[in-house]
Amino acid sequence: MGRHTAGALKAAGNAINRSVPGGTEASYTIAGHLVTAFINQLNQVERVETLVANPLLGDVRRVVRYSGYRDFGGLQFPSLISEYEGDDAVFALAVTDVQINPAVADIQVPDNVRAYRLPAPVVTLQRIAAGVYWVTGSTHHSMAVDMGKFLVMVEAPLDETHSAAAIAGIKHLLPGKPIRYVINTHLHSDHSGGLRTYVAEGAVVVTRTVNQAYYERAWAAPRTLEPDRLLRSGKRAKFMPVDDHAEIRGTNGRLIDLYHLQGNPHNDEMLVAWLSTDRILFESDMLNGVSYSAPVAHPSPVLVNFYANLQRLKLQPLQIIGGHGSKITTMADLNFAVGKSSQP
Asked: What is 124-337's CATH superfamily?
């Protein structure tokens, strides 16, 4: 972490500096990004900021703040380092000890690490019922549903790259059918970062009513760092707002019901998608980390709420398809996980 403050001071020596109230503002470029550091009159770095590309929010200001400077064996160093993206806190690190130039062995970066490049996402389409496919990636998943003359995608996680791979996969499997709707279970960026890619395809975003204004505001932000498909297309997002319940009916008679999980601790605006004819339920983040190999003494509040909502809605799925994980869950699994049965 010492490289944060020391690096900012070193870079400031070759930067464009200007005096501002309380200190000096130094601007310099790293890997094509303009970075600005504020250095106070005690020569302490108080903050460093730049712009980064975010798939949901566009160009976002990232700020690292350094505060609570203390003397660590003759070295002035911040005792708190905090990072923010936009208005959101990313992390906060409390520094309790600093050692000056400790002896370390020669550390070599392995060749495979040095040469690593992020691989292109690979998605797999697993048939779970006639016209219903679990679109799995490495960590985040979607579900594609054939509605006759059109398709519905449930969930658009992570970013454009992952959504583009999912779209290519389902188009190859079911050619000639437009993706008319994309269902968004909740606002968290790892489950909504790929929505704009589907909007560029012409899909209507199905989400909780209160989310629409947030998306419209977020998507109006500049995207100069990484222009995406939607920006290049010039299209405007269309929404299908959901309060407690809504439905999408296909030309083949298939019905998708959208239900709000009332009072869910993970997110107040959580939706699940229910295919009544197939008795398939799609959820995200409700079953994360759940073990079905041993009884759980104290199920998480998220899991308990999920179970209670299914009872309230009188939903008894044969298959529960997740936005995470490698297992298709059954109601017997869920009963066991919440302590309602002795074995799945």
From this structure: Ribonuclease Z/Hydroxyacylglutathione hydrolase-like (3.60.15.10)
